[in-house]
Structures are given as C-alpha cells and as structure tokens.
Specification:
Elements lengths: L2 E5 L6 H10 L3 E5 L2 H6 L2 E4 L5 H9 L3 H8 L5 E4 L1 H4 L2 E4 L5 E2 L4 E7 L8 E6 L1 E2 L14 E6 L1 E3 L7 E6 L3 E8 L2 E4 L7 H12 L4
Parallel strand pairs: 1-2, 1-3, 3-4, 4-14, 5-7
Antiparallel strand pairs: 5-6, 7-11, 8-10, 9-12, 12-13, 13-14
C-alpha cells in the first residue's frame, strides 16, 4: 500500500491529521517535495491561519502548480483553511488568488452570531459524495473559522451547516474534496470521512 502526502507549507495543522490517518492504518508522509506528491496515492492540504499568507507560502515554492497537476489523477482533501484555498479567491485581510478548483470567493460569514464559529455543528448533506459514505444527515463535526467559501456552482457543494445563516461545510470537484470543519478533531464521524478518503485511490 502507498501513502498519503500531507502538504507541509508552514501553516498546517499537520500532526493531528497525520495521527488520525496513522490511527486508521494509512501511511502518511509530511512533505513539500514534488517527487513525494507524484508517488503518493492521495494528498491532504491542511491549514490554519490567514488566507493570503497561506497562499504566499503555497504558491511561492510552486506547490500550487503541483497540486493542480496531481488533482488530475489522485484524490486531494483540503481541511479548514486548506478547503478555503481550493476556491478561486480569498477576501480575508486583502484580496488573494486561490487554487481555483471551486468557483467563487472566500468571505467573512454573514451572521449575527459570535465569530469565529467555534464548536460542534451538524451537517446537512447535499450532492452525493464518497467522502460521506456510511453517514447520515445531522452528523456532528468540529468547526473553527470566521471565513467560509461561497460556491457559485451548487453542484460543488456536498454539505452545509447553519450558523445563523447557511454555511458551506464541504465541497467536491472531481478528485478534489474540501471540509471547512476538522475531520481529524470530529470523533468517529470524522474518522469515517478520513477512512473513506484514504480508500479512494487504493
């Protein structure tokens, strides 16, 4: 069995993702090396922090080009800020481009509730996705964010949650998946999602 490459670009919540995948029996490799991504069965793009800073650290060494290339032939999962980077652009701090897998911007959540949105919240699944196999609506997952993606194509939205307004919680475009929540911190529900992802290309 091969391994899942976890993108090391200086802003990721790497160890908790690695620990969760290893717990499920999947070999992982934290890396920024192009050859490692090419040989990997799948790629996970974690992330914590501000969108424009993350984009600079991703695009500076050319990791954006590597991810676009690898997405044509293997599964990629963006988590939290990693999901936001899948969108066309971010509006946090200053306008910034993104990877462009999902059409639309990443904007501040328009809600009367307290921000950041921190804690457990339930999902409502939209379009079918192998990421959610074995799970039902109202599955609870853990969020920590102030900004969220606004997908222009509803077919790319696979789950939403409510935080005083509808918030895009997960997206999919071909081999590319994104979760605004942290599956690695979401108990058994999150482990099921990571297991589903880990099995996609094996």
């Amino acid at each position: 069995m091969g391994y899942t490459a976890i993108v090391d670009y200086g802003v990721g919540n790497l160890m908790s993702v690695e620990n969760a995948m290893n717990y499920l029996g999947f070999e992982t490799r934290i890396t920024s090396d192009a050859d490692d991504f090419e040989r990997a069965d799948a790629v996970i793009l974690p992330g914590v922090g501000a969108f424009p800073d993350a984009w600079e650290k991703l695009s500076g060494p050319g990791l954006d080009r590597i991810l676009r290339r690898e997405a044509e032939r293997k599964p990629i999962l963006g988590i939290c800020l990693g999901m936001q980077l899948l969108f066309q652009r971010g509006e946090e701090v200053r306008p910034s481009p993104g990877l462009g897998f999902v059409r639309g911007p990443v904007e501040r959540i328009q809600t009367d509730l307290k921000l950041p949105h921190i804690g457990w919240n339930s999902l409502r699944f939209r379009n079918n996705s192998p990421l959610f196999e074995g799970l039902g609506d109202d599955s609870y997952v853990y969020f920590v964010h102030t900004f969220c993606g606004r997908a222009e194509d509803p077919r790319q939205v696979i789950a939403v949650t409510d935080y005083g307004t509808e918030v895009v919680a997960a997206v999919q475009h071909g081999n590319v998946f994104g979760t605004q929540f942290h599956p690695e911190k979401s108990g058994e529900v999150g482990l099921i999602m990571l297991r589903n992802f880990g099995r996609l290309n094996r």
